[in-house]
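Page 47, continued from p. 46.
Same chain as before, 235 aa.
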Amino acid sequence: MRPAFALFALLMISACGPTAEPEAEKTATAEVARFEGLIVEGTPVEARSSGFTDCVAEGNSYYGFTCASPDATILRVKPLRTIVRLEYPSDLPYDAERKPEATAYRGLKFQFLKPLSRSVEDCEYDLTNPYKCYADQSGGLPRLMTALKANGWLGGSHRSGTSFVKPGVPFTVSINTREVYQEIAGQRRLIIQVSVYPTDLEEVAAAVERLRAEERASQFSANANTDFVESMKAN
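Result:
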């Protein structure tokens, strides 16, 4: 085991026992952004306090660490895996000493298996729900899409996927529809990643207004199309 990773592993488990230092606990319980109880950004201390304790080194720990939580859910939907990526500062010199406690993360990453692509006939595609027309709606991703809309999240499509915001909530939920294969538990899986990251409330408000305007425009267009079709039938 490399010295840096051994030190990091010790750091991640050190507060699990009764000898945890008060300062470490104080840091972990300070006012931080939480999404469904999970701390969305921070240091190894915050990652550990949110249950991200199953860690592996990336690039022999040169690039940082990926830490998983076995129990995390998103809107009560259980993903295949939930991770944070503890990374060194981007401006750290190439030859600088890499101390694991200097790593930090920003955002939660929920990994889901891509559902079977067999489609339902005559299903109208929805840009804000890329899995609406999949025959199998029992998997995690279709259930997550349903939960997002049921809980008031507004979605909009972009080049690499779909993003959701909710009025007054300082987070963005982003579904990256770019498919990637990943080795998990010794098996090669086709994964879709859902990220949750902190977002300034002003940005959220602007996004909400834009999405509502797009909804109004879409509805106006649909009504105009219906009116035209009906007018062509009139005598």
